[in-house]
Specification:
heterodimer, A: alpha+beta, Ubiquitin-like (UB roll), Fumarate Reductase Iron-sulfur Protein, Chain B, domain 2, 2 domains, three-stranded antiparallel β-sheet, 11 helices, 10 strands, elongated, B: mainly alpha, 3 helical TM bundles of succinate and fumarate reductases, binds protoporphyrin IX containing FE, binds iron/sulfur cluster, binds FE2/S2 (inorganic) cluster
């Protein structure tokens, strides 16, 4: 039994350049109220073993670097208080479903390649407008709500480690990249659906989600990838039936200082930007 | 890009159950896939057995008498259990995968409540229907109802 103000960190360690198999190393960590798993790791590195490897950057659940398996669940180390996990032992392993580079550092290259393949940015087809913008695109609060939830993703990969389909299908695009695709499909400024379709429609993409819901359960940002994937599926079906419609897009003249926002003129957009 | 020697640790099929604890929808996912395969195996077997009639009355009669054994009756009941679950859960999956039962995107406000919460009443209702079917089928299979 550890002392009352002490907790054991059991960390899966592996340095593929040296070790053939991973081993577990136990570190006692002095516990303070409110302490996070990340602070525990920093304490170990400062006072016990400087060779321990993991990723972190922002320490506040924003950068998405520090996702790892904490007592069996994919979580952000910086966003997880030790007392919420266990009073005796914190068990840490690198994110599942990805190769290990060292200790708690997983190699997420394939994740980011899949993400990039889905063109995760606003793509526009009217190059004339891109070169000489005629104004600002107007987005109503309702149009914003259609994608805001999905834009909160910090690409931490927790959902990819939790998904049972990612676990058993090496080519499955998985929750994070497909959620990013839906975030842009659902944006009224976007024209990229047709470009993304090549990947979204293939067998190992949206079609392979069977709604285990694990991604949404572990997501630290409330992104709800499971919802995004079902909404994406619906868009793909509507598109296949020829029923998918572009959202309305209006252009607003840039505000000038002597013109209050209420008096800004809403322009009829050029015909190629909107197909109602 | 991949110049690090890296050790693969994809969880794979076996670790669906041992990888980490799932939520209830995660276990339903596993059960749905297993019950689907059970039904597929049963259907193939069923077609094979019934096609034995092609080899004459006698072959058919011997096979039929085999199926009256209590053990096979019980196995048949298990297939019914798989079917009752697969069909009710399948209705939920069809609704979800057409984007109906998951709700619209909402602002992520902590504590997060998302599509899992939205579809849960449907899940509970359908699982109660499955349980009722399974119990009723059990009475019938054990000839308690008659
Ligand atoms: C009313 C009856 C049925 C309904 C409503 C139904 C519904 C479904 C649905 C919606 C799926 C897709 C699930 C997903 O996306 O995860 C599915 C999968 C499947 N079903 Fe059925 N099904 C029924 C009967 C059957 C029967 C009779 C068989 C056997 C011949 C069967 C075998 C399968 C198999 C093998 C799968 C694939 C499992 C997977 O890959 O996840 N189903 N079913
Ligand atoms: S959807 Fe959530 S769990 Fe998945 S990568 Fe984005 S923030 Fe992480
Ligand atoms: S360190 Fe940035 S999310 Fe944890």
């Amino acid at each position: 039994m550890p002392r009352t103000n002490e907790i054991i960190f059991s960390i899966r360690r592996l340095y593929p350049a040296v070790d053939a198999v991973p081993h577990t190393q136990r570190f006692p960590v002095e516990l303070h109220p409110g302490m996070t798993v990340l602070e525990g790791l920093l304490q170990i590195r400062e006072s016990q073993d400087a060779s321990l490897a993991w990723r972190f950057s922002c320490r506040m659940g924003v950068c998405g670097s520090c996702a790892m398996i904490v007592n069996g669940h994919p979580r952000l180390a910086c966003n997880t208080q030790i007392q919420d996990v266990s009073r005796e032992e914190v068990r840490l392993a690198p994110l599942a479903n990805y190769p290990v580079i060292k200790d708690l550092v997983a190699n997420l290259d394939t994740l980011f390649e899949q993400h990039a393949a889905l063109a995760p940015y606003i793509a526009r087809s009217d190059s004339a407008e891109l070169i000489a913008p005629g104004g600002e695109f107007r987005q109503t609060p309702a149009q914003l709500t259609r994608f805001l939830q999905f834009s909160g993703c910090i690409k931490c990969g927790a959902c990819m480690a939790a998904c049972p389909t990612v676990a058993s299908d090496t080519r499955f695009f998985g929750p994070m990249p497909l959620t990013a695709a839906h975030r842009y499909n659902a944006d009224n400024r976007d024209d990229g659906f047709a470009t993304r379709k090549r990947h979204m429609r293939q067998r190992h993409a949206a079609e392979h989600c069977h709604y285990a819901g694990e991604c949404s359960r572990v997501c630290p940002k409330g992104v709800d990838p499971a919802r995004a994937l079902q909404l994406l599926r619906r868009e793909l079906l509507l598109d296949w039936l020829g029923l998918r419609r572009r959202q309305a897009l209006a252009m607003v003249q840039p505000a000038s200082d002597d013109q209050p926002p209420s008096q800004r003129r809403v322009q009829t957009p050029p015909p190629f930007t909107v197909q109602r | 890009m991949n110049d690090h020697p890296a050790v693969e640790q994809r969880l794979g099929l076996v670790r669906w159950l041992t990888g980490h604890r799932h939520g209830i929808e995660g276990y339903l996912y596993i059960c749905h896939r297993i019950s689907g395969i059970v039904l597929l195996l049963f259907l193939s077997l069923h077609v094979l057995v019934t096609s034995s009639r092609l080899f004459g009355e006698e072959t058919w009669q011997t096979l039929m008498s085999l199926t009256h054994s209590p053990a096979l009756k019980f196995l048949e009941y298990l297939v019914f259990v798989a079917f009752a679950f697969h069909a009710t859960n399948g209705v939920r999956l069809i609704l979800i995968e057409l984007g109906f039962a998951v709700g619209k995107a909402e602002h992520p406000v902590y504590p997060y409540r998302g599509s899992l919460h939205k579809q849960r009443p449907l899940m509970i209702v359908l699982m109660v229907v499955a349980a009722v079917l399974i119990v009723l089928g059990g009475f019938d299979a054990l000839r308690l109802g008659r």
